Write the structure tokens for this entry.
Amino acid sequence: MNDHHVIVGIFLLAGTVLSLAWRYVRRPRRLLSFQGWLGVGIILAAETLLFLKAGWLISVYFTPIVWTGYILLADALVSSLKGDLRLRSPGEFLALAFWSIPLWLIFEAYNLRLVNWAYMGRPLSPALKDFGCAWAFATIWPAIYETADLLAALGLFQSRSQPRTAFGPGIRRMIALGGLVLVAIPILLPVRLGSYLFGAVWVGFVLFLDPVNYAWHGESLLRDFEAGDNSRLFCFLAAGWICGILWEFWNYWAGARWLYIFPMAQHWEIFEMPAPGFTGFPPFAVECFVMFETLKTVKRQWTAARTQPKLIQTEA
């Protein structure tokens, strides 16, 4: 990779971080907690040890280590602004981290056929490799949610408009059908064509699942839109951009990392990612929200279905 591709990426990262830092210092806030400084310490220590080539453990597990530090830091920044901590509710946070693994494996399954990325430098030991993958995958959803929380706490994207006309059942079914087509067509087409359409997967689950959340009274972007409030959508879109830059920045230096092999713009890279690929991070973050909220909605429906017969028997 040419050096100027790395320089462009560093400038994008620096501009993003500095703009957030400027917004942060202008907001009323409390002092950063020990948790936040611990997160900073983990990130700086990992980067320093990696630079000094201080052992293979740091190199191989660099990605999950720095993302653990980032999650601690982002959570503490939110707390300093509004007093809320996701880590203060360990059950909810652990659910987010736990489900992050199988949810990401859905996209790994797509990649088995579409072959858009590959991994290198992972441990030869299956146990060590699986441990590193599980740790890294478990940070994806928490990082997206914490970043969206931080953007909301910074007061970004808070404008509201007048309530809009409700989405009828027919429109919701059409949206869901369109999403189903998008998630299905890349794997139904021949591989040489489907490999160009991974972007449809980043959007398809949003369109497919959000109408389900709406119909089952879960958290829904469609309902937000009806209420004239798109702040959550924009926070997650921006969270995808921020996390995407950080993913690629930290991945570039890691010993165990991923490489992109999808058949587009391989000569226009920023870090390891072909430049057009960065457009996939914002919708992916929205997809993270919709998929996790679907799990919560299904769980709530299942719990209600189990408890309803008991309530009927009690009343009888």
